[in-house]
Amino acid sequence: MPVRLFSGARSSGISFNMLHRTDKSRLKQQYICQLEGVVVDRADMVKGYEFRKDEYIIIEPEEIKKIEPQTAKTMEILEFVKAGDVDPVYFESSYYMLPEEAGRRPYALLTKALEESEYVAIAKITMHNREYTVFLRPHEGGLMLHTMYYANEIAAVEGYGRKYDAKLRPEEVRLADQLVQSLSAPFKPEQYHDEFQEQLNALIESKLKGKAVTVPSRPTARAPVIDMMEALKRSLAQDGAKGAPKPVSVAPARARKKAG
């Protein structure tokens, strides 16, 4: 089934160039040989693996090509699993799969089978000199390919998911469920946008026009910890004038880096 891949999603944002502050000329990145102190041309660069402190073995591009797996040219489906069994944490990058002329019928057949069975296919494919395990799933009449994080790439956070010693009262659970229902709505991704990027665009426009930069107001302190019952009741009471409760605020603590 010959197919082509197209990037399904990518983050967007404003990019900056690094400049010399005094004359605003653009800076150029260079690779410096630590031993000789000279600039090294790309033609003289090789890949090296550090097997011991400051000791390397050289890996040539030809050597990598020799050990490319069979999936370098073809994608092999390994098995099918229930879509509900795949945790989204394993999804890495997304691609649209479009069939070539000769692959339209098997493409349509696989798409139909996955739609009706609610399964996803797990396959192997090689891209950019690396073998990936991927998911194939139906999406809006076509197939999406998602590269997969391997189990050893999923971070483990100590203490996450443990049974916290928190005794929840039935009334608290009922109010929390009620709050979830009151804020429930169909998923419309187009209604969400990057407010920081919008403010950054406004900052650039203001500077281009020589206008004063206005700083948006922001909270100066973290929301205090208050009685949960009162907080739930207050959130639910917000549906008076606007017909919808105020969004729930969650203030995450800063991630602590481990010493060493």
**Distance between the ends:** 51 Å
SS content category: alpha+beta
Could you name the CATH topology of the domain at 3-10 and 68-152? Ku70, Chain: A, Domain 2
Number of strands: 8
- Helix content, binned percent: 10-25%
Mean pLDDT: 82
Task: Please state the second-level CATH architecture of the domain at 3-10 and 68-152.
Answer: Beta Barrel
Task: Note the main sheet.
Answer: 6 strands, antiparallel
* Silhouette: extended
Description of the molecule:
This protein has 260 residues and is an alpha+beta fold. It has a domain at 3-10 and 68-152: Ku70, Chain: A, Domain 2. 22% of the residues lie in helices and 22% in strands. The protein has 5 helices and 8 strands, in the order E-E-E-H-E-E-H-E-E-E-H-H-H. It has helices at 61-66, 104-117, 170-183, 195-208, 228-236, and strands at 3-7, 47-52, 55-59, 76-82, 91-99, 119-127, 130-139, 142-148. The protein has a 6-stranded antiparallel β-sheet. The chain has a two-stranded antiparallel ribbon with strand order 2-3. A hairpin with a 2-residue loop joins strand 7 and strand 8 (142-148). The radius of gyration is 26 Å and the shape is extended. The two termini are 51 Å apart.
